[in-house]
Amino acid sequence: MPSDEGVPARRAALQMLDAVLRRGQTLEAAGAKATNLVPVDRALASAIAGETLRRIPDLDALIDSATRQRLPDDSKARAVLRLALAQTIGLGTPDHAVVATALPLVDGGPRRLVHGVLGTLLRRGLPPMDSCRLPEAVEERWRAAWGEEAVLAARRLIARRPPLDLTFADATAAEEFAQANGGRSLAPRHVRLDSSSVADLPGFGAGGWWVQDLAASLPARLVPREGREVLDLCAAPGGKTMQLAAAGHRVTSVDSSESRLGRLRENLGRTHLSAELVTADALLWKPKRQFDAILLDAPCSATGTYRRHPEVLYRARPRIIADNSALQSRLLERAAQWLKPGGALVYSVCSLEPQEGEERVMAFLDANPTLELDRPTADEVPLPVPAADAGWVRILPGLLETEGGLDGFFMARLVRRG
Ligand SMILES: C[S@@+](CC[C@H](N)C(=O)[O-])C[C@H]1O[C@@H](n2cnc3c(N)ncnc32)[C@H](O)[C@@H]1O
After folding, report:
1. Is the shortest distance between the CB of 297 and ligand 1 below 6 Å?
2. How confident is the model over 194-204, as pLDDT tens digits?
3. Closest ligand 1 atom, CA of 240?
4. What is the pLDDT of residues 10-31, one digit of tens each?
């Protein structure tokens, strides 16, 4: 057995964490750079980095409880200790493997210190961590916006693996699949599973379903049934395009990213659905006709996806949120011009920042009096969402928590009067 077994994956995890925390990259982008690893090691490295990002404040508290002098936040010793402890807590890695793969990462450096701290903490026994504090800045922001309950729910949810949600093109097929595979259907055309291995699920090749968080499936449900010509703006990788096409609409899907549109094309091929695809910057592109309905699933901080992408908690700094807000306003202004009279514009973001949701829509409506909010019906949003008096839908951490929770989301339907 080679003596460095398991070390390359940990080294890669360390680099991924650095890329996320110091350089603001996504975990996916950072993981794609680990080309020297075999796929199984790359997956392990991503899993370790992800488990670490879920619980940094609590891991730091543990580390601080076992050191006399506080290790600097950006020290290698702290990074290696975080990574090692996250494996024990999140992945159940045996202690000897955690220690044996951590120490080579600090060769020629603070090896004795890391060995000592790890030994102390592992001997003491690590707490279960069924609730993980979020970075302080995020907790403060969410507490101010949504209250303490939402923060506590988010802490509990980030400590658990989120369930796997599938959206089906056909409602009957969803019910049959749920029955046959031990899934739960929480809405029409939806199935929730505890397992997370997508390729092993029956029917993947046949293309009757695709992976999509239940909250992410709601905006397309707000596109009126009778809207035939639908523009899906910011469409890739296409979960919502597939819903719209499956509902029978004629869909034009626009996205500025060629590579993400490539994934949309693949998704349409697998699901045997069709849409016209356009690679274009929506700030420059102009359609030749107007649409019955437009779905604008705008680029955002994506903080609502914190359970599957915990790095968003570190990437979504106030500046990023402000930049996104400005882009969202410009996209809303453009999209509204392409709507037929009586047409519906659905705006959505997978964000838990009011700046990207409620505030954008309020500012837009102030400046565009010919559009007004059109409250979704209980059929369209078949979930126990607390009624928002304003007429939009806000999904907060805590909704359906006992069922496994949902991504944080905001959506609103605006209708052009005249
Ligand atoms: C939230 S994602 C869309 C997810 C997609 N609606 C789905 O359901 O799969 C936002 C998308 O906006 C695209 N985007 C960002 N800026 C854009 C722009 N100026 N014009 C067009 N697309 C843009 C990004 O490439 C990204 O694919």
Report:
1. yes
2. 876 787 788 88
3. 8
4. 999 999 999 999 999 999 999 8
Extended beta strands in 139-257, E state: 164-168, 190-193, 209-211, 229-233, 250-255
Residue 350 a catalytic site member: yes
337 Cα distance to chain centroid:
29
Query: Residue 1: what pLDDT?
Result: 41
Which two tokens mark 185?
């259907």
- How much is the pTM? 0.95
The 8 Å CB, 24+ separation contacts for 147-156 are: 149/398, 150/396, 150/397, 150/398, 151/397, 153/396, 153/397, 153/398, 153/401, 153/405, 154/306, 154/397, 154/398, 155/131, 156/130, 156/131, 156/401
Q: What value does the mean pLDDT take over residues 114-139?
A: 95
Whole-number Å distance between alpha carbons of 221 and 400: 19
Cα-to-centroid distance, 94 and ligand 1 (Å): 41
- Residue nearest to ligand 1 atom 1, measured at CA: 299
Determine the distance separating the centroid of ligand 1 and the alpha carbon of 255, expressed in angstroms: 5
Distance CA 172, CA 332 (A): 35
Contact 232, 282 (CB under 8 A): no
Torsion sign across C-alpha atoms 362, 364, 366, 368: negative
Which among 234, 235, 228, 254 has a CA at the least distance from the CA of 344?
228
User: Do residues 364 and 298 touch, judged by C-beta distance below 8 A?
Assistant: no
Residue 153 tokens, joined = 């729910």
Looking at residue 376, what DSSP letter applies?
P
Ligand 1 lined by 299 (C-beta under 6 Å): yes
The pLDDT of residue 418 is above 80: no
Q: Which helix (H) or strand (E) holds 340?
A: strand 339-349
The 8-class DSSP code of residue 106 comes to G
Residue 367 to residues 149, 207, 333, 356, 392: CA-CA distances in angstroms? 34, 43, 9, 16, 18
Beta-bridge mates of residue 411: 348, 393
For 58-81, the pLDDT digits (tens) are: 999 999 999 999 999 999 999 999
- The encoded tokens of residue 58 equal 């609590």
Q: Which two tokens stand for residue 93?
A: 């890695």
Specify the residue for token string 């488990």. Answer: 51
